[in-house]
Amino acid sequence: MFTASGAAPLLGAGSARAQADDAPVRIGYLPITDATPLLIAHANGYFEAEGIKADKPVLLRSWAQIIEAFMAGQVNLIHLLSPMTVWARFGSKAPIKVVAWNHVGGSGLTVLPEINSVADLGGKTVAVPFWYSIHNVVLQALLAANGLTAVARKTGAPAANEVNLVVMAPSDMPPALAAKQIAGFIVAEPFNALAETMGIGKVLRFTGDIWRDHACCVAVMREDDLTRRPDWSQKVVNAMVKAQAWTRAHRAETAAILSKDGPNRYTPHATPVLTKVLAPEPTDRDAYLARGAIRHAGWQDRRIDFQPFPYPSYTEELVRRLKTTMIPANREFLDALDPAAAAAELVDDRFVRAAIARNGGMETFGGGTFSRGELIDP
Questions:
Q1: Is residue 19 predicted with pLDDT exceeding 90?
Q2: pLDDT per residue over 218-233, tens digit each?
Q3: Helices 230-249, 36-43: crossing angle, 10 deg rounding
Q4: The domain that contains 142 carries what CATH number?
Q5: Quick one: 71 and 118 in the same domain?
Q6: How many CB atoms lie within 10 A of CB 92?
Q7: Whole-model pTM?
Q8: Do residues 170 and 188 lie in contact, with contact meaning Cβ atoms separated by under 8 Å?
Q9: How far is CA 336 from the centre of its chain?
Q10: Dist. CA 322–CA 336, nearest whole Å
Q11: In this structure, are 94 and 222 located in the same domain?
């Protein structure tokens, strides 16, 4: 879909539309909890508080739609799967920059009730939301650690030591699981929680329990906006970071705002499903620990958390792992990527550093500094 030649017309159209210096914030998003900072910033009026205009966010149904709308200039602030930004920037030469993380964790591997271990997935099919997704990267690490090989077979059944991966839109995953067309799916919330509340599946592992505090979706803006409108761009990032700080302190209220029962109906999900993700009962964690969905109790990670700083170590490790991840799509560009150079080119952290300082520093977001090491243990 998004090759360099295919993107050219969209790049031209987007540049033409994006030239207006007073263009408002136009958010494009999928109805998943990854979009929380963008939607809460809109709901709480944080963009207006910064002195900039913001249109009503546009709900889109697929990652392809988000990319197309962004490149065509219909939206100018989006959340993308972190590996998608590597693909877009370096595989398709799209003029984008990651300006902040939207959240950490917030995804899981959900399977049929009769699946009790990763080994049980041998010879079966699991759905991923996109080849360039952290879900695909983490799933393949988990499969390899359990002696299984990821394949992408269009015909024929996978062997006993293989797991067939298929790309599927998140909203299609729970129905496919209920119909036993797939044995499991790995995706962002709240679709894992939805499968649980429907009684059609269970969480086998949380992705944040495999790669600690990994980014899933990141906030993306056009490079020309950052260059031509730095003051405007700073205000956009200020609003998002303020929304993350507010969300950390108002998790149950956030679930209500994002739900189909909220005044803006940002998502089609019921409040109890979103609450299970954002403000779960303590007994939920106990149950996950008991059956091994959480294996690293000492990490003390939440089901989803909010921390905006884009650690370079994460992007560098992501590039390294993409190089060895099975991706049946355009991937030749990965061979030439240097992880450190790619991270420096892809991410512009000037604005988020200033926004974090305005919101009490890193202590507001769980503490820490602007550097870390990556902890990955399948």
A1: no
A2: 999 999 999 999 999 9
A3: 100
A4: 3.40.190.10
A5: no
A6: 21
A7: 0.94
A8: yes
A9: 25
A10: 12
A11: yes
